[in-house]
Structure formats: C-alpha cells, structure tokens
Amino acid sequence: MGLLRSGLICVALLVSTAANAFDTLATSALLVDQTTGTVLLAKDADRAIPPASMSKLMTLNVLFEAIKSGRTTLSTKFPVSKRAHEMGGSTMFLRYKERVSVDDLIRGIIVQSGNDACVTVAEALSGSEEAFAREMTERARELGMMSSTFANSTGWPHPGQRMSARDLVFLADRLMTEFPQYYPYFSEKEFTWDKIKQKNRNPLLNLGLGADGLKTGHTEEAGYGLVGSAKQGDRRIIFMITGLESKSDRAAESERLTNWAFRQFVKKDLLKKGTRGASAPVWLGKDRKIGLVTGRDVTTLIPHGASRDVKVEVSYKNPIPAPITTDTPIATLTVTPDGMEPSNYPLFAEHNVAKGGLISRMRASAQLLSADVLGGQLPVGR
C-alpha cells in the first residue's frame, strides 16, 4: 500500500460480494458478526428508541461490575421492598421482606424478566431505583453509549428510557467479553422460584441455531424486540431487532435473520496480526517513518455473489509526533465491503520511536521554513 501525503491510504481489493440485502420487518435493527467486527445489517441503528426489557442488560452490566469490584457477591442476599414486591408486568414473584441471593436475582432478571428482581437489585446497590437509573446513565456515557438514558432499572415505559440498537449490540458484546463467567445464565431455558416455573422468552434457544442469549423486550410503545446472539462454527453474531407486531413475528424474524447471517456470507482474510499495513511519517523522532501493524487478525465477511470492491483505508495524524510506543493505537484501518457499513481496526507502531535529537529538530525546522517560504502547509491529518 502506498502512502498518500494527505495521511489517508486507500486500497481496493477485488473480492466476491453481492447486494443480497436483508429486508427486515423491524423498525430498528443492527446485526454484527462479532468474530470479524463486520456490520451485516443496519436499519435506523442509531435512533434512541424505547428499549423495553432489553434495557435490563444495562441493569445486569452494573450488577456484574458491582460483583467484579467487590461491592457484592453472588451469595449476597438482597431484601425485597414493598415497592419491588408490587411491581407489575413480568415478575419473579418475590415476596415482601424476603431475602434473595444475587445469583437467583440474576436468573430472575434474565430468564423471567423479573421487574421485581431489577428493583431489588437497584435498591440494594444504589439506595433507590432513581439513583440506580442515574448510575446506569452515567455509566453508559463512560462506555460511549451516547444514545442511552435510563429512568428505571426495568425498561418500564418512560420518556427518559431510551437506547439505540447500536448501544444494545455494544452492550451485549461487552457482557460476553467482559463477564464471560456469567454469560451461561442467558442460555438457561427455564427457572423456578417459589415453586413457580417460568420459561425463557428467547424464541431462538430451542431451534438448534446455536443461539445462547440474550434478552427479549416488549411494551405497547416499543413493540416486540430481541437482543440475540448465536454461534455456529468459528463465527458468532449479535443482533438487535425491535418494533415487531407480535411474539410470532419476533420469533420468525429472529430465525430468518440468524439463518441469513450464517448462510449468505463468507469470511475474507485481509491482514494477519502483526502485519504491516502501511507506514507513516514521524514528527521529531529518531526515525523518520514508522510501520503501522495490526493488533489482531483483520478479516471481513463478504456476501456471496458477483465480484465487487472492498475499500481498505488507513487514516492517521500526519505526521505522527514522537515519542511513539507500540502499545498505543496511532492509526485506524477502515474496511468497507461494497454496500455495507465500515468496520474499524486500530493500528499500532511496529516498534517504539523515541524523540529525536538536535538533527531531527533541525530537519523539522527546515521543513517548517520551507513550507512557510513556499506558502505551503504541512499536512495536519484526517
């Protein structure tokens, strides 16, 4: 790949692609191949919408973080308040004043979608559900979920309860990668509490598609939705759909989407981990240029069909100022299959580059002087 003075490198690779677009019935949707980071489908994915019980994933994220930090444990028992006991909608059927372990509350939230379990967790961790909702919103901002705001822990209809499909898929990925020890809860097909057995509402768990999570949602305002995930072979997908008109529509659309994702795409290897994808000029460093390498294998998914182009771009601040270390991303590799959303991968320095000495500074000064004399301008990056 050749270096452009603008700091942007573009290469077109001929691969097999096709415009086999998936026409989803969902009003908002996002489908990502977790293995490669390829966005396979996006429909109004950044609009803040009512998430219904799918927002319980954020309640679980805060709870899992609390366990990790030592604020609580799986065996800790939380008291059930009168407010939690009286919650409507889907419930775990908790009794007022009883004490329930965190382990059981997690199952009650995931399998039974228990609003009472969510309020019990919120009150135990933050003192009140309102305070817990504020903590959820603050944490969402810290994680970069800019379309998410929370007014409660349950997904109960409220103007302040909003999430986007992209935020929900990001959150699902986070729950899998940051808390893998808890992910098996999401594939449990039933849970019994106080002699009341309830089945997991996820319509994909019994279909043999490799589905193992995550959370359904439904309100009058939101329609029927699902944040789902499935694994087949070495590939895993994560998706979110919402706005379906019935349970049967949600089940059918989820199955159709899952089959399409696994059957209509093939994997294309682009760069191996550690491979130099480009080189970039260095500012005030001992080296004048530095190689840019990948921190992971870079692959993408290509639809079956006729030959079309995949655009690969590398962007960086031009020139890159020294000192430069190998553990800090200094560039971005963007892969865009034809007709699909781009996927971004960080690039790192091939080796450390220390600040240059007197000669390097003199050379840089000469460049600045030359640019000024010629009325030119040094590139400032893209």
Topology of helices and strands:
Elements: E1 8-16, E2 28-33, E3 38-43, H1 56-69, E4 77-79, H2 82-85, E5 99-101, H3 102-110, H4 115-126, H5 129-142, H6 165-178, E6 190-193, E7 196-199, E8 211-219, E9 223-232, E10 235-244, H7 247-263, E11 265-271, E12 276-283, E13 289-294, E14 298-303, E15 307-316, E16 320-321, E17 331-337, E18 343-349, H8 358-373
Parallel strand pairs: 12-16
Antiparallel strand pairs: 1-15, 2-3, 2-10, 4-5, 6-7, 8-9, 9-10, 11-14, 12-13, 13-18, 15-17, 17-18
What fraction strand?
Answer: 25-35%
For the largest beta sheet, what order do the strands appear in spatially? 1-15-17-18-13-12-16
**CATH homologous superfamily label of the largest domain:** DD-peptidase/beta-lactamase superfamily
- How large, in whole angstroms, is the Cα Rg? 25 Å
Structural class: alpha+beta
Q: State the CATH class of the largest domain.
A: Alpha Beta
Order of helices and strands: EEEHEHEHHHHEEEEEHEEEEEEEEH
The major β-sheet equals:
7 strands, mixed
Outline? globular
Please tell me the CATH architecture of the largest domain by its name.
3-Layer(aba) Sandwich
- Annotation field: number of helices: 8
| Whole-number count of domains | 2
CATH topology-level name of the largest domain: Beta-lactamase
Low-confidence region ranges: 1-19, 371-382
The tally of beta strands, per DSSP, is 18
Helix content: 25-40%
